[in-house]
Write a structure and sequence with these properties.
The chain is an alpha+beta fold and about 170 residues long. The chain has helices spanning about 15-20, 25-60, and strands at about 70-75, 80-85, 95-100, 105-110, 120, 125-130, 135, 145, 155-160, 165-170. The chain is about 25% helix and about 30% strand. The structure holds FE2/S2 (inorganic) cluster (FES).
Length: about 170
C-alpha cells in the first residue's frame, strides 16, 4: 500500500497530494506563488463581477420605481400651489408644486439633511425645510440655503387627460 510518502512503484510518479503540497521549500514556494496568482486572478475577477452586479442592481433599483400612479385631477393643483402624495410606496412622502409659470414639478418630501419634511414656501417659491432652515430650488431640487448638500430626489410627473400621474422616481 502506498501511503503517499513514497513514489508510486508502478508508475514512478509521486502521489498527487505531494504535487499539490510538496515538502521541499522550493517546490512549496513555487506552488504557493502559482496558487496565489490563481487566487488573486480569480478573486479580482469575482470582485469585478460582483461590482458590476452591484452597480447594475443599484441602478435598476434607482430606476426601478417606474410604476405609473394616478395622483389626481390637474385642476386640483393651482398655480403656485402644492400637493402632497406618496410615491412609489406609501412610505415615500412626496410634494408636487405647480410653479408660477405653470410648470409641474415634484420631489421627495424627505429633506436630504436629516430627513425632516420639506414644504412649499409660496412667498419664496422654493421648498423649505423648517428643521434647520434648509431650502431647495424648484427647478432641480438643489439645495440653495441651510445645511443640506444633496438635491431632493425628483419625481417625474405626467399630465394627460386632465389627470396627473407620477411615473418615475429619480435618484
Ligand atoms: S433636516 Fe432639513 S435642513 Fe436639516
Amino acid at each position: 500500500m502506498n501511503t503517499g510518502t513514497e513514489p508510486c512503484t508502478s508508475c514512478k510518479k509521486s502521489a498527487k497530494w505531494r504535487d499539490d503540497f510538496p515538502v521541499e521549500w522550493e517546490g512549496d514556494n513555487y506552488v504557493t506563488r502559482r496558487e496565489m496568482v490563481k487566487f488573486l486572478t480569480l478573486g479580482s475577477l469575482f470582485l469585478a463581477v460582483a461590482n458590476w452586479i452591484t452597480a447594475f442592481g443599484s441602478r435598476s433599483l434607482r430606476r426601478g420605481s417606474q410604476n405609473r400612479q394616478l395622483l389626481g385631477p390637474s385642476d386640483d393643483l393651482k398655480v403656485n400651489g402644492s400637493a402632497l402624495f406618496r410615491y412609489p410606496t406609501e412610505k415615500d412622502p412626496c410634494i408636487a408644486v405647480r410653479t408660477v409659470e405653470g410648470k409641474l414639478v415634484a420631489y421627495s418630501q424627505v429633506c436630504t439633511h436629516l430627513s425632516c419634511a420639506v414644504v412649499y414656501d409660496k412667498a419664496e417659491q422654493s421648498l423649505f425645510c423648517p428643521c434647520h432652515n434648509g431650502r431647495f430650488n424648484l427647478e432641480q431640487g438643489t439645495p440653495i440655503a441651510g445645511p443640506p448638500t444633496r438635491p431632493l430626489p425628483r419625481i417625474r410627473l405626467e399630465e394627460s387627460g386632465g389627470q396627473i400621474y407620477a411615473t418615475e422616481r429619480e435618484a
